[in-house]
Description:
The chain has helices at about 1-5, 35-50, 70-85, 100-110, 135-145, 165-170, 180-185, 190-200, 215-225, and strands at about 20, 55, 60, 90-95, 95-100, 120-125, 150, 175-180, 205-210. By secondary structure, it is an alpha/beta fold.
Amino acid sequence: MLGSLFRSKKKSAPPAFATDLHSHLLPGIDDGVQTMEEALEVIKGFKNLGYQRLITTPHIMHDYYRNTPDIIQNKLAAVRQALADAGIEIELLAAAEYYLDEYFLELIGGEEPLLTFGNKYVLFELPFLSKPMILQEAVFALQTKGYRPVLAHVERYLYFGQDADSLYDLHHAGVIFQLNLLSLAGFYGKEVKKQAEKLLKAGLIGMVGSDCHNNRHLMALGKFLHAGAAVLAGQTFLNDTL
């Protein structure tokens, strides 16, 4: 069903989305795809949408997803081999989506390098209910180590709607904001869509991503892109520089 939907449409994703930089496509290691078959189906769907490169970002969350660079790289190698065996030609890379907690601070200060993409970009996420007290400390620690912090799905933290100053402070401090395309499609609700459009209009968004976890996400992404994604007209992002 997924493949037939995309095969029936000839329109590809806009050029700025040749690279997707936020997804969960390594099977069985977080809340993303769970089997190799599902991984291949979703990745093929991205290719049919016109994407050329996927930077997948498994969760690293100490209490739930205790992934390590070795776990992620080994799973990446397995998926790449499966893609080659299936004849699916698309570039697949891996970084991580780090959850901001005390464990993340330990990782930043440790000797083992963090998983990055592009020019030392590090994707990290926040709790959804309240802004963490250690946010500024984490940003400073990342930058001190030469990393470039990228805040995942910034529009989904609705508390920033009442704390715009903090958001602008982060932006001025050099934090790059990543927006989920599905937020613009209303996938996460009206309030998130409204905040996404506001941030986009203010010119605060540096990167966009799918945050794709499964076929359902990909179907919604495909519908959004095939509808023209008009809200993105005239916008430029860092995706195509990675």
